[in-house]
């Protein structure tokens, strides 16, 4: 829990109902989308370019992150009670943080790559070989591992009330929350800068209507929108929690306790939204790599126009199906009314 006061521990009932369906939806769609992307990158997309290397590593980071989500879903389903032991708690938290950081860094690398090709087309970095790109990618992996390896060095498995917690965002571990915030701030700043500079350059050159250049601009705008939707809410909520605790606000009334609970509950929900980024990134591969899109259509024999003609409805129906089934399961386990019984 983000709250250090035991009297104001978050009630897990709401989170038990809300977060498992969300996390399992992110897991199913994320594994399918990123698994397909890895398969295409490995066996169908040849030869690789330097940009392909960054897209592949983005898909790898997202895929590995998705594999840890069922354990978080089980954690919330159990009423925020961890049942997989101390060692696996640290491993799962490290896996989530490392791959979330990797995803952020590779999105940033893709934005910088597009910026250099459009704004500085004659720069030597644009002739980077795939091998050199692999070295850059390895450097980014080393960076994200080193920033999060502290999660393996001390226990994040502790008792709070009648349950066992497994949390990396605690008031005792300021390093992790600081890394999380700085990763977001740095990456968002760079992505916004690249997007703005590309837009300005296209205006100056009068290339706004050129199809290939226009696609690059739309891709970066898509990355920016996905990034903000997935990461801004959790960072904003954490700043509010940090400011409240920095002021050493003492919890002396029920109102203070309710405010603390509301902030903690909001943070639990918004941190789960960060994993949505890994589910949505396969859309980025299609926009950034026309060859990836063509191969995907050829392999699956699908017409990607379904995204305009009903793809959103398919995603919505899949989510509702998962949610209704999990809600029904929860009702049997906890004796809670499911949706069909609610007044």
From TrEMBL:
Topology in the lipid bilayer: Multi-pass membrane protein
Membrane spanning stretches: 22-41, 53-71, 91-112, 133-153, 179-198, 219-243, 267-288
GO cellular component terms, semicolon-separated: plasma membrane
UniProt-annotated location(s): Membrane
InterPro entries named in the record: GPCR_Rhodpsn, GPCR_Rhodpsn_7TM, HCARs
Keywords: G-protein coupled receptor, Membrane, Receptor, Transducer, Transmembrane, Transmembrane helix
Domain G-protein coupled receptors family 1 profile: 33-285
Family as reported in the entry's similarity comment: Belongs to the G-protein coupled receptor 1 family.
UniProt name for this protein: Hydroxycarboxylic acid receptor 3-like
Organism: Myripristis murdjan (pinecone soldierfish)
The organism's taxonomic lineage, starting at the top: Eukaryota, Metazoa, Chordata, Craniata, Vertebrata
């Amino acid at each position: 829990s983000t709250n250090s006061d035991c009297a104001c521990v978050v009630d897990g009932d709401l989170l038990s109902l809300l977060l498992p369906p969300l996390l399992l939806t992110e897991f199913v769609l994320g594994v399918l989308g990123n698994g397909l992307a890895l398969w295409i990158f490995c066996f169908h997309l040849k030869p690789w370019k330097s940009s392909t290397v960054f897209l592949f590593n983005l898909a790898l980071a997202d895929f590995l992150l998705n594999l840890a989500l069922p354990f978080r879903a089980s954690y919330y389903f159990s009423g925020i009670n961890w049942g997989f032991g101390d060692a696996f708690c640290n491993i799962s938290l490290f896996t989530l943080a490392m791959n979330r950081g990797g995803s952020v860094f590779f999105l940033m690398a893709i934005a910088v790559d597009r910026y250099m090709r459009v704004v500085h087309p004659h720069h030597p970095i644009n002739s980077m070989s795939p091998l050199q790109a692999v070295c850059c990618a390895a450097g980014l992996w080393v960076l994200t591992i080193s920033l999060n390896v502290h999660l393996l060095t001390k226990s994040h498995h502790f008792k709070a009330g009648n349950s066992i917690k497994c949390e990396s965002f605690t008031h005792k571990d300021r390093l992790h929350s600081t890394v999380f915030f700085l990763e977001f701030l740095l990456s968002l700043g760079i992505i916004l800068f690249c997007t703005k500079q590309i837009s300005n350059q296209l205006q100056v050159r009068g290339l706004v209507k050129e199809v290939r250049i226009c696609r690059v601009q739309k891709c970066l705008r898509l990355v920016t929108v996905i990034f903000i939707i997935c990461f801004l809410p959790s960072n904003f909520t954490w700043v509010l929690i940090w400011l409240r605790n920095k002021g050493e606000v003492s919890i002396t009334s029920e109102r203070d306790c309710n405010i603390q609970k509301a902030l903690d509950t909001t943070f639990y929900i918004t941190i789960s939204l960060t994993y949505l980024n890994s589910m949505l990134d396969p859309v980025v591969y299609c926009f950034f790599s026309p060859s990836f899109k063509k191969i995907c259509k050829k392999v699956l024999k699908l017409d990607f126009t379904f995204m305009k003609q009903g793809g959103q409805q398919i995603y919505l129906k899949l989510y509702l199906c998962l949610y209704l089934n999990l809600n029904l399961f929860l009702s049997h386990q906890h004796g809670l009314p499911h949706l069909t019984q609610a007044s």
